[in-house]
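Archive entry. Fields below.
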Amino acid sequence: MKPTDYSLFNLVRRGVWPGTAWPPAWRSVKPGLAYDVVIIGGGGHGLATAYYLAAQYGVSRVAVLEKGWIGGGNTGRNTTNVRSDYMFSESAALYDLGLRLYEGLADDINFNIMLSQRGWLTLIHDQHQLESARHKSNWLACNGVDGEIITRSAVKKMLPGLCIDDSARYPVLGAFLQKRGGTIRHDAVAWGFARAADRLGVDIIQNCEVTGLTMKGGRVAEVRTSLGSIACDRVGVAVAGHSSTITAMAGFGLPVTSYPLQAMVSEPVKPLLNHVVLSPGTGVYINQSQKGELVMGGVLDLYPSHAQRGNFPSIEKVVTAAVEMFPEFRQLRLMRHWAGIVDVVPDSSPILGATPVENLFINCGWGTGGFKAIPAGGLVLAHSLATGRTHPLAERFGLDRFRSNRLVDESAAAGIAH
Amino acid sequence: MDRSHPLDFSFNGVAMKGYAGDTLASALLANSVNIVARSFKYRRPRGFFGVGAEDPNSAVAVQDGYSYEPALRAGQVWLAQGMKARSVSGWPSVEFDLGAVTQLFSRVIGAGFYYKTFKWPGWEFFEPFIRKATGFGAPLKVANDRTVQQRHAVCDVLIIGAGPAGLAAATALRGSGLKVFVADDQKEPGGSCRWECARLDGIPAAAWSRQITAKIAADADCTLLAATTVTGAYENEMFILVQTIMDERGVRGERVWKLMARYVVLASGMVDRPLLFEGNDRPGVMLSSAVRRFIGEFGVSPARRLAVYTNNDSAYLTALQAKAAGVDVVAIVDTRSANSAIYLNEARAVGITCYCESQIESTRGYRRLEAIGLRQAATPNIVWIFCDGVAVSGGWTPATQLAAHRGIKPQYDAERSMFVCKDLPESWFAVGGANGALDLQVAMDQAHAAAHAIAEATFTTLNGQRCIASARGFGAIQPFWLPAQGNPHRMWVDLQNDVKVSDIALAVQENYVSVEHLKRYTTLGMGTDQGRTSNVNGLALLAALSGCAISEVGATSFRPPYTATSMRSIAGARSGDLYRPRRYLPAHGVHLAHGAVVLDFGWERPDWYRSNGADRETAVRAEMASVRHGVGVFDSSSLGKIEVTGPDAAAFLARFYVSNMATLKPGRVRYSVMLREDGVIFDDGVVTCLAENHYLASPTSGNAEAVTAWFERWRQTEWPHSRVAIANVTSNWASIAIAGPKARELLIRLEPGFEASGEAFAHMEFREGPVGGVPARVARISFTGELQYEISVPARYAGSLLQSLLAEAALAPLPIGMEAWLRLRLEKGYIHLGSDTNGRTTPLDVGMGSIVSKRKDDFIGKRSLQLSFAIEERREQLVGLIAKRGMLETGGRILARGHVRSPCPTEGYVTSACESPALERSIGLALLEHGHQRNGETVHVLCGKNLIECFVCDPTFYDPKNERLHA
Amino acid sequence: MIILECPYCHEQRVEDELRYGGEANIQRATDPTAVSDEVWTDYLFMRTNPKGWRDEQWCCEAGCGQWFKVRRHSVSHAIETVARFDVVL
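PREDICTED_STRUCTURE:
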């Protein structure tokens, strides 16, 4: 164990013997003139890409360019839920890789990301949803991913505050439970990957906005930024809601539309919700953070936007649904609400890998589900950037699928929200 | 304050007395309550630090005569008779908290320590303990609810805050004809007029504010909302206001206003900012402005022996006011030199000892401040002064949160050492404290100027005079951020979350130097007080420690709401059936009378009838048997009905359906599907040609609105010259289907006004004429595979038609519920949209390929069927399945060829399944890869724990030659 | 909260009364069979999604039911133009 490693021992040592200061979690550096790989976007996906490039592919002449502060986009704005109960085998493989990497991540990157596998419950309100849930559990069993249907009384036990009596507007017949689903401290994912990548030599450059791409012979030769031009061999783009803006600089479009997703927290209260719960009837999902705040999210705003502002009509919908599900929440108070900008594609599946520009690779289109896939998204983009080829798990998620209409539309097959 | 009106209340079970007009905070102070809460991390004793929303400490649970609130700040609760309050932190009690033991480890558990440890044996091991320790209060399982109301309003000017500046703006706008809203979060308007020593227009400020308030309240153009907090500012100048409705028993209810304003006057005031020193978190240390208000408004002194610590002149006013109120003011400690302090002589003249160029270096006391240790410049010794309270003022923070909601970043003003909003939108005016005014006359002039600017912009005239103020200003400030002496581990920046100077230093050292990183890493300002007293000090420390100017580090963004807003008020009355209204069939009552078990299928529809059997399965089987062997009556009123008329109606409909509706003759009915533009089935149903140029499309129940909108949108946007009118008449008509071999006999008994014989009225035909004496549209179509008529009558006749059909006892018709109906169609192999199709199913997959290939002209979605996705080999296609043994379940997953154990690849799933009485086998429909070529094959279906072996077959299980429906 | 004045019925509508309908000026081929897969899938899926001014389709859903066009800024949500559907933005 190095003295800079995070551990209880080092924590105590530094507490007891002052003067042995912790080093910076990552360095502040000025951009170099050239890199093997430039990653645009210092959110979870971009930082994970940098980490896996350095750790698994041995590419460490890497720069991550972040317009603002790392983790300041959707990584630091989402409701921190993770799960991998996807049905299409290709989706299941990708998202379950994400969850499995998360399960080992605290050790991998020596940073406690507070993975709390408290169980993800998708409520079942009617016969049709029960049949869909049966389909899902059978399919997941075939995919080798955990997930089960639990009864109404089991739901009552797990969620004592949930209104499931006959007066409920949306009756509860049971729930689909993925025990491995849960929450993760979102900032820790960004910071942990940043620190781990930095320790492997990656340059993380904040407050560096990409202003243009210099193209030469169908390739990106230079990334132009507010801090000067940076030459590079390959470029990775992981900027979620701003993907279209970056690819427009490279001369191609995306089937992406940016929508705000509202999120909000109540004032912190004592533990009263021990799992993550999603109601398809109301479209709202809720968990309780370690600090005691109820973290709530729901449907997208009705129209596209790049404004990260809270929108009251959406807040009303989510809060109204939350108190409808949990009547005792009527006594609680809403403390903060905000929005993230998510990149929505027609089939709500990510776009990964190659693009019309030879040395530019992309990771976008996660919509509202990007956080849970950060390690997987990072790994497959790192694979493309290191090898120039698409990762086998990402093959069905190429941009080319929109030419053949071979979409991977999980919600179309299931009617389940992300 | 109304001393003639005493109130009883209790705190932590101890009976106490207060007065009308008290807040819970002032009443507790008057009852000498010292420790009201414990801090979040180290469980240190916490007293009152602020007086209202800015107080980081005083979270209490409150039960008044109406309802229970798990965690409110005591300064925001108005005392009511019989109120019961208790602390929500501290175990076993707030006075004695075992959790305080964490202080022993404070060096180890600094900012973000949890990111560095708890990895072994696993976070899940520690998490429950940590969660148990966090949070303030908990809701009651059973609690009385408050009344909640919602209002909408529009005004010309919204004035936020009815302090002197807000009232001045309001009074200037009076008589202009502009519609003005004034909102103030206090029970009584007036703001600082109620507690500061000032005169306005020659009379005491308190009297002035009462006078103005009365005038405003009487003005028809003005709406004065007291006890109303503007909680959020949104685009298009939409504001959310939360009004508290109170009486002597407590808070009776809340009213949420959605208010649109053309102009906004932000007069929300400002709060004092604390100074940092060692032990600055002890109960007894309080904001100087809070001390002035406690004394001036509530007549309660927060300390017997009060010291004042400041870097500006406003705190001298606190000392003078306290002295005048009889408090023993033991010292004024000023970090500045004597010649900067404008009220120095005045303070000395009344006998207050003043220490200039001095700093508090340390404090004593644990449960209550006992003494401060101060050091004068260039002296080696610490002077200890015994006192039980310190009023601190390190400058001011204008309340600009609402501007921040609109995306306006406050900027640092070095001269006044505060963040103010400089780039407000044209329609916004910040006045008074909210604009950093340190002098009352300046504040009044700003308000006056704002009113005039609004008048000018709206072409109105103002007649009022500028208000003349006489008050002592807050003077000048010399910023003082980080004391040179003192232990940073014992200097608190955020009192609620226990963020200390050392935590900020650690964050800076670890390079969490972006403002947002600092906030998130240390939890600075993330508490329920939203950092009102801690943010700016945090920013200044960040600047000092990272060696840049405060203006360079940027400001944190404030997010709505301004103060926490009760979730019940946001939800309003929208709960239960008002959360999402239910849709009822017109004959709902008749169904209930027949014992219908009604479920929500989008509409409230009978699932089965108790009159047909004691349990669901028995009843469903009886219902199915009656359709197969006699006649059943089914309410299909929810099915969509869209009339399409006009010379181009036929051509118009042809563009939507896979089948060519242009060739449909009057009196004929045709089934088809319509696609989205990407080739996927969007809806299915029949189209009836009622007459030339007059069609009736029947989409599925769930899609009636969507299909209407879909038709309408294409008509307007793509084919605007089509001569077509579209009307959704779904709820105008009720439809009752009668199905079974005796259906014709039943129809004839109702004496239809048309020839109903099998020859005269064939399958897929339509007739119009009276049935049972009421006008009716009758289609002979079938969903069940039996002879079937669908009788549509004006909705008001639904109940009587249903009753007369069921009254034909000789034919023994049974009412049929959804479950039986769906099983009947499953036997027949008809698809149920949304069950047997999914978001990827094309008409080619459900056996309509030949219809598609026959169409020569274009229809919506046709082009996409030529894309490779639609013709690829591995399409999931609709097939029938017959179980060899065991029971198929909807949702069963079909294993890939050669696999009999999961996990394994799969090739499709069971979309509908049931026990077929006709086949006496378990049957199902399925979407199966290359299904159309796999007739006769055996497949394995995973249904939960069971693996069911099935034959693949044609989906039509029952009467494949259609003899029965043509009967 | 978006507020638009319908260019047909001239009523002001808030966002809950309106329906957003995607990017404006998406051209459907007059003869879809005559265009390439690329042109057709561009029509189906590709959208410009600019961070800035966007041309959009909106419907006065809770009012007169008419579709119209709007030029709106995706960051500030400022409205530059609201026009009847036949107007070319």
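CURATOR_NOTE: The first strand of chain A starts at residue 34 and ends at 40.
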